[in-house]
Amino acid sequence: MAPRRPRDIDAELRALQDKARQLRTRQKAQLGELLLATGAADALDPDALAGLLLHGLEQAKANPKAAESWRQRGEAFFRRAGSGTQKSGSGQAAAADAGAAPADPADAARLAAE
């Protein structure tokens, strides 16, 4: 039997790091697309968006049922967006259709609490 070749651990590690970098880049792009599709990027400034997300995380930890209802609402949003009902290409139309990210940050916080 021929001896096994030694593994190039450094090359494997570099390949995994490259793959992780690509996944993070794709995730950032998808999050940006989500902000645009819901209209949240136009309706709220970055500070309000960050506050809304932080509030949502706190609410999800305190009330898992709320997080489940948000998940269902998001699933319905993507189902509608994927079925071609969003014809305008405008993030505002998607936001109105999904009921997401109202222009008033206080309303957005109330939505997050639901």
TrEMBL record:
<protein>
    <submittedName>
        <fullName>Conjugal transfer protein TraC</fullName>
    </submittedName>
</protein>
<feature type="compositionally biased region" description="Basic and acidic residues">
    <location>
        <begin position="68"/>
        <end position="78"/>
    </location>
</feature>
<feature type="compositionally biased region" description="Low complexity">
    <location>
        <begin position="93"/>
        <end position="114"/>
    </location>
</feature>
<dbReference type="Pfam" id="PF06412">
    <property type="entry name" value="TraD"/>
</dbReference>
<dbReference type="InterPro" id="IPR009444">
    <property type="entry name" value="Conjugal_tfr_TraD_a-type"/>
</dbReference>
<feature type="region of interest" description="Disordered">
    <location>
        <begin position="65"/>
        <end position="114"/>
    </location>
</feature>
